[in-house]
Sequence to fold (87 residues):
Amino acid sequence: MPPMQSIPRPDGNLTLENAVEAVRPSFDDLVSLADVSVEAAAGPEMPETFMALARRAESVGWTLDIAEDAIRQLAHEYLGARGAFAD
Fold:
């Protein structure tokens, strides 16, 4: 599997909006490269694959809580876009 894109360090603003944009490229890579349940990532019990992504974000300076929330938001966006495409 090709490597996922790196997650940039926060620029001092640890907001959910900034975390979503920072994590988005790696989230997209993960969804396209691996057999993962995006539906599960949108729920309260995040699968280990997505937790690993949250820990990667934490390792560069994002808080784990914000990284998890960003992944959940991205999962909701992904599922919403997929549903809109199916309509």
